[in-house]
Amino acid sequence: RPSIQWQKDNNASLPTTYRFEEEEGANQNGLPTLSSNLTLTQTQTSDTGDFTCVVTNDVDTKTKSAQLTVLEVPFMPTDVAITSRTKDSVSLSWKEPFDGNDHISGYFIQYSGGIPKVVGWSSPPIDTRGSGLSYTVGGLHPYANYTFRVSARNAIGTGGYSDSSPLVETEEDVPGEPPDISTVVDSSRSIRVQWSEVPFEQQNGIIMKYEVEIRERIGPGNLQPPSYKTAAESGTYLATALKPFTDYQFQVRAYTSIGRGMFGPSEVNRTDEDKPGDPPSILEARHPNSTTVAVTWTAPTIPNGIIRNYTVYWVKRTDASVSGSVQTSTDTTKATVGGLEFYTEYNFTVRAL
To answer: What's the half-sphere exposure (Cβ side, CA atoms, 13 Å) at 347?
Structure first.
């Protein structure tokens, strides 16, 4: 009776998880036959190799070999590293894992962190669509922390994910705009400007300062060249040295180390009134009769508000104790002073209110 032996990679010793069976029989000519089946249970990568069946009798030895390749999903990639970064992207590299005895067709990448923060890992994963060992992940948020992990795939399926990459922070960018603005008139020459911080998810870095743009408005859509003031504290600025009773437009923008962001919404407000910047100018004082003087004048060139009335003061030139005044009821620029002495000189002045 011949003997049968199974070998793997020319090694006569097989693992105990392998089992084989022999079965005797007869062929169609009635001659005795002997067959053997080798069965592998719970196959794994290490089972890949050349299996040989060796049959020996008193006359000769015959062998027959077959190659077994166990296919499985790839192992997890290793040494995931950060190679570069920008404000909105991170470039990764990694080492190719064991391919599971099948060609690696691509990789999946997941990330954690960001703004707003991704809890767990991003889903769906990013498909590199290729077998290259590096990839740049785009569409990230500026000035945010991220970690990454990578898995490989082949025709069998997707393997496990790698260990997390080192923590990486994307670079800063210019900030977003302050979401709102308000103003409060403080006096005839000052207005307080207030605004809300740029929202955290739009700061894109460390806010270095806020800048207030101030523009005098001399008519709808007609603005004077701007002046720029840096706010000493966040959220408020007192604009001073303004003109009385004048419209000003205010806007605020933020800065990071990269530069300035866009202006937020604008707000227009007017300073309070103040006393006129110059007195009225008397044009004429004439006497329609011997006891009456008609006075006309021009309005102040810098009214600093709305002129509501004028007061005309008179005093006898030769006797300052003889004086009086007449107040206009409107913003008219003329008044008549009566009840004066005939053939007498008087001094007249006009005051705007």
So the answer is: 10
8 Å CB contact between 195 and 209? no
- For 83, 93, 121, 131, the CA distances from 111, given in Å and listed in that order, are 16, 14, 6, 19
45: phi then psi, degrees, rounded to nearest 5: -60, -40
Residues, the chain, total? Answer: 353
Burial 302-329 (b: 16+ CB within 10 A, else e): ebbbebeebebebbbeeeeeeeeebebe
Question: Across 1-77, where does the E strand assignment appear?
Answer: 3-8, 18-26, 32-40, 49-56, 61-68
Task: Give percent of the chain with pLDDT exceeding 70.
Answer: 97
Q: What is the separation of C-alpha 349 from the centre of its chain, rounded to a whole number of angstroms?
A: 63
Amino acid (one-letter) located at 324:
G
Tokens of 157: 């399926």
Mean pLDDT of 29-49: 80
What residues does 214 pair with on adjacent strands? 227, 250
Q: What is the DSSP letter of 200?
A: H
